[in-house]
Design goal:
- It is built from 10 helices and 7 strands.
- The chain has a 3-stranded parallel beta sheet with strand order 5-6-7. A two-stranded antiparallel sheet has the order 1-2.
- The longest helix has 18 residues.
Length: 202
């Protein structure tokens, strides 16, 4: 699933806000499970560039009305970024990522270090987008910390060879801590103010 926001230490991304349901999952689910032609037969709508642009416009309106930062996320990101290089890595399209960072007031923190899986040949759960972030930051992926809250994101971080920390927030769109541990994260945290203590060197 596509959740919004994620920082990270080194080559990662922390969750900055939460919007229940929807998101690009609405777009991806028909494509993944039915294919373009199957979606056309099922809904009567062909998914083409115009459809995608119209969907994203509707989505962005909903996000601007409903998106809220996870408590403590902005401060946590800034605390980590003061001491370590960071990147925002997401499976979402760049427009959505940059809009959400601007809404959270974090555009200045990440600058050009924003990476979209949609701009790679393979998105999450493949590691490509995390590997690209690590290369840009001049890091060995094995020394990077990844902050994730989705199964595909955890898989991508682990495949990149990084240490993955799982955020188990409140609400039905988050994976439970037990599920994240089962996916192989190094540790689980439930409050964003815990993040700096996990990723910053002592």
């Amino acid at each position: 699933t596509d959740r919004q926001r994620r920082p990270a230490r080194d080559a990662a991304g922390a969750r900055l806000g939460h919007l229940g349901g929807g998101g690009d999952q609405t777009l991806r689910r028909p494509l993944v499970h039915r294919g373009v032609e199957g979606h056309l037969r099922h809904t009567g709508h062909r998914i083409d560039q115009d459809w995608i642009l119209a969907f994203r416009a509707r989505r962005d309106v909903a996000l601007t009305q409903r998106l809220q930062s996870v408590p403590g996320a902005v401060d946590a990101v800034r605390t980590v970024a003061d001491r370590l290089p960071v990147a925002c890595v997401s499976g979402a399209d760049r427009g959505k990522i940059e809009m959400q960072l601007a809404m959270a007031g974090l555009t200045d923190v990440f600058g050009d270090n924003v990476f979209s899986g949609m701009e790679r040949e393979r998105s999450k759960p493949a590691p490509d987008v995390y590997l690209a972030a690590a290369r840009t930051l001049g890091l060995d992926p094995a020394t990077a910390a990844v902050v994730e809250d989705s199964a595909s994101g955890v898989a991508a971080g682990i495949a990149a060879g990084s240490t993955v920390f799982g955020f188990a927030g409140e609400g039905p769109t988050y994976l439970a801590g037990e599920a994240l541990l089962g996916l192989g994260v190094a540790a689980v945290f439930t409050r964003m103010d815990e993040l700096p203590g996990l990723v910053l060197p002592a």
